[in-house]
UniProtKB/TrEMBL annotation:
Basic and acidic residues bias locations: 397-411
Taxonomic classification: Bacteria, Bacillati, Actinomycetota, Actinomycetes, Kitasatosporales
Domain DUF2264: 17-364
The protein's name: DUF2264 domain-containing protein
Region (Disordered): 397-433
Domain of life: Bacteria
InterPro entries tied to this protein: DUF2264_N, UCP014753
Pfam families associated with the record: DUF2264
Amino acid sequence: MPTPPENRELSPYTGWTRAHWEATADRLLLAVRPHASPRGGLIALPGPRPSWSGPRSDALEGYARTFLLAALRAAHGDDPHGHLGRYAEGLAAGTERPGGDGPESWPLMAGTRQAVVESASVALALRLTRRRLWDHLDDTVRQRAVDWLLPALGPSPVDNNWWLFGLTVAGFLQDAGIETDRAAATVDRALERIEHWYLGDGWYSDGDNRAFDHYNAWALHFYPVLHAHLAGDRALLDRYGPRLRAQLDDHVHLFDTNGAPLPYGRSLTYRFAAAAAPWLGTLTGHTPLTPGATRRLASGSLRHFLDRGAADARGLLTLGWHGPHEPVLQTYSGPGSPYWASKGFLGLLLPADHPAWTDPEEPLPAERADTVRAFGPTGLLVQTTAADGLVRLHNHGSDHVGDPRADDPGYSRHAYSTRTGPTTAPDPADNHFALLDADGRATPRGPVTPLGTGPDRAVSLHAPLPGVRVVSAVLVHGRAEVRAHLVLDAPEGTPVRLTGWTVHPDGPVSQLHPVHGYGPGLAELPTGATLQGPGPTRTPALHGTTAGPAALFVALASLTAEPGPEPGSAATPAPVSDLANVQVSGARTLHVTWQNGSTSRIALDAPDPEDQ
C-alpha cells in the first residue's frame, strides 16, 4: 500500500495528514487478516508467549481491539478494504457457540474475566457503526451478541478502571434500545464507583491506591466522556468534560518533541493510545489545545512508534515499546494487547473538514519553553526543556504497590523520562535511592507518601526497612535537578546508593555529581537493555554511609540532549556542578542558587510517625 506524500506546509512538524492516519489504519488491519480464523471470529496473532488468560482469550482480544480500529477507520463511511463486513462475519461466528472449543468460539465472561475487557471494545465498535453494521445483522446474530455482552453489566471483577467496561457495553445497549433500564443502572453504578477515586484537577487514582499514570487520560476520562458525547447527554458531558480538559492541561506536557509519550506506569505496549484523550478533547470541545496542536501531538506520537519499529516486517504491532521488549509487559499482556493503541485513532471520528485536520500544526509545550509543573494531587512533577524537547517526570506520590517489598519499574522510580529506561531486574534500578545490605542488595522503595509539591519541587516519604524512613526531595531548574534524601533512624554506617539516569551510547547525556553525604567518586554500574533499545547502557551511581539518626545525602543530576552548533551534532553539556550551587545548613536545610542567580530553599522534615 503506497504511503501518502508528506505535507510540510500543513504539517510542518510531522508531515502527516488525515490520509496518513487512514492508510496506517488500513495497513494495520490488513496485516492481521492472515491470522484470523476461517470466519474471522478470532484473530490469533503470533507472539513470544500467551497472556495469563490463555490463547483463546488472546485471540478474542485480537478480534475486539482491531474491530475498534476498523470502526474508527470506517466512521465516516469510507471502508475501501471492506473491514466492517469481515468483522460482522466474525461477530456472527464468535457468538454462535460461545464458551466452546471450536475454531471461532469466543470465551464467556463467566470463565474468562479478560472477556469483560474485550466486551467494551466490541460494544464501542458496534456503537460507532450501529447504522452501518448492527442494524443490518440478522436478528438471531444480534440476539446472540447481546447474550454474550450482557454479563458485562454485572459488578466489575476488578476494582479499578474496569468498571468502565460495563459502562461502555451499557452505552451501546442503551443506543440500541436493549435492556435500557439495566444498562442505565450499570452506567450510574460505574460512575458512582470512579467518583470515589477522583481527587481533583483532572486526576483519578486507578483504584483504592495511589496509582497515577496514563490510565487517567485514556481510560478513566476516555470512557465516561465518550459515552456522554455519543449519548448526547449534556448533563454528563458538562460534568466530565471539564475534568478531561483539566487532565489534558497536564497530559500535553508528557509528550516529547520527538513524539514520544512518557513511558511511565503499566500497559506501555499500548503506545499511541496516549493520543486518544487529546483527540477526545477536540471531539467534545473540552480541551485546552488548539486543533493544530492536537494533530501535532497525535501525529507525532503515531510517527514516533512506527518510525522506530513498533510494527514488525509483517506489519504487526509487537509486544514492547519501540520494538519487542518483554520486560515492559504485564502478565495480562498477550499478542493482541498492543492493538488497544487503536484508541489513538479516535481522531478519525472527526470529519475531514474539521480544523483538527485542516489547521496547520502548532508546537507542543515542550518545544515552546522550559516548564516545571506539579500535577495536582498526584505528587508528580514534570520538567521539560525546550532546547532538546526532553520531558522528565519526578515521582513523589504514585506507587501502585501491592507487595511493599516488590519493585515495579513502571511506578517505583524517583524519575522517568521520554528518552531513558527504566532498567529492569537483574540490573540495578535507575533513578533510585537505596540502602544496601551486607551483600550489596538494594532496598526497594515501597509505598510512597507524598509530602507536597511546589513551583520547583516535590517531596515524599518512604520506609525502605522497618523502623527506617527516608524523606526524598527534588528541586529543578532548567535541566538541573537537586536530589536530596534524608535517612532517619538507619543503623550507623549503613551503606546507601543513589543512581541517576540510564542512557544508551547514542542517547542523551546523563550527569550525576555528589554535593553532600556521598563519597567523591562516581561509579558506573553495568546495565543492559531498556525499552529505548538494546544494551549496553550506562547508569551513574553515588555511594555513601549513614552517620547519626538523621543522615542527609544531596546530589546534582542532569539529563540533556541539547543539540550542538552543527545540524545533527550534540552539544557537550556544561558540568552539572556549574548549574547550581547548593549549601547545606543545619542537619536538613538546603539553599540553592541556580545558574541564572535565582534561589530556592527547602527544609527536609518528616511527619511524626504517629500522625501517618
